Every structure is written in structure tokens, then in C-alpha cells.
Amino acid sequence: MTFGEKLKQARQNAKMSQEELAAKVFVSRSAIAKWETNRGMPDLENLKAISFALNVSIDYLLDDGSTLDLSVIREAIDISQYGKGRKKAIKDRIILEKYPNAEIRTLIATEKLTKGEKITDFIAWLVSPLTNIIPIAKSFDNVDNEFYLVNDGQKQYLVKITSEFMESRELSTRITEKKFEMGNYKFICGTIVKA
Known about the structure:
Elements: H1 3-13, H2 18-25, H3 29-36, H4 44-54, H5 58-62, E1 72-76, H6 87-98, E2 103-111, H7 115-127, H8 133-141, E3 146-152, E4 155-161, E5 165-170, E6 179-182, E7 185-192
Antiparallel strand pairs: 1-5, 2-3, 2-7, 3-4, 4-5, 6-7
């Protein structure tokens, strides 16, 4: 049984609709539908929330006989030790130090809107056509975050660097497209980071 089939079965056993599960996990209904049809995979935080909401173990959801590496490493960093300069340039130095022999691409990340946010944004646009309030507000949430796609030999990582920490997530499926979605984010691959 695939992850999607197990997720759907566990949701139905809990007598929940996709909308109800989405509300408990704080994702969109379409994210639940995508996961149930095996067109995507939740990140570790969403997997924990799903497990809790449906009262099933993560092992139950993931065990299909294959291996799925969802290892996440979060390391504290001190940006002040890198001196003054643009935060982006400092974060580029940090990632180059962590993965000196890897191909590293910058990622442009935008948070996906929930159904409610899309409706609110549309209504706001009707009132004032030049305003997209929610996407602008969400862009400020990520202003301190830098995202990178790291190809290090046979392994690939999605890395997020903030002012306080660096989070490296080993990907179970290799990303080859220029645009992709993961969790609640849409990503576009940018330039290669160079020393």
C-alpha cells in the first residue's frame, strides 16, 4: 500500500474529510489531495501533524517496503561572526563552508496561499485592483530566510538559512525541474552560488 493510500485510509478511518484534516494540519485541502494521490510528499513537520491528527504512527504511513530518508539537521549559527555585509552574501558564505564540494543553487521561495487567503485576496483585489495584500504580506514572512538546493554527490538537500539556524533536509526524491513545490512552498531555482 502506498503512502497516499495509507493516508486516505487513515483519514477515512478517523471519519475526517480532506478539509477537516487540512484544517488540523494547517495546510490546504489540495495539499491533502495531492498527498493522497501520491503526487507529492509532506515534509517532516506536516508528517508529524498528520500522524497526531489521525492517531497513527509515522512508521505506519511511510512503511511501504521502500526507504524514505527524511533526515533533517538543524544547526545553530551566529551570523555576527562573519562580520558586516549583506545578509544574503553572508548566508552564501555559510552554505559554501558547509558544502564546499557541492553544486549549490539559490532558490526563490514563495509560500502558497490557502483557499481562504485566495478568497480574501480576490475580494481585496475587487475593491482595489492594484493590491495583492496577502502575497505581499507572506513575502515579508520569508524576508530573513534564504533557501538553497544542494547537490552533494549522490545526495540532494533543501537548505534553509535564517539569522539563527541552518536547516538541511535530505531529499528522498531528486529535484531536477527548475520549478517545484514542497510542503507549503513553491520554489524556483536561481543561480549557482560561487565562492
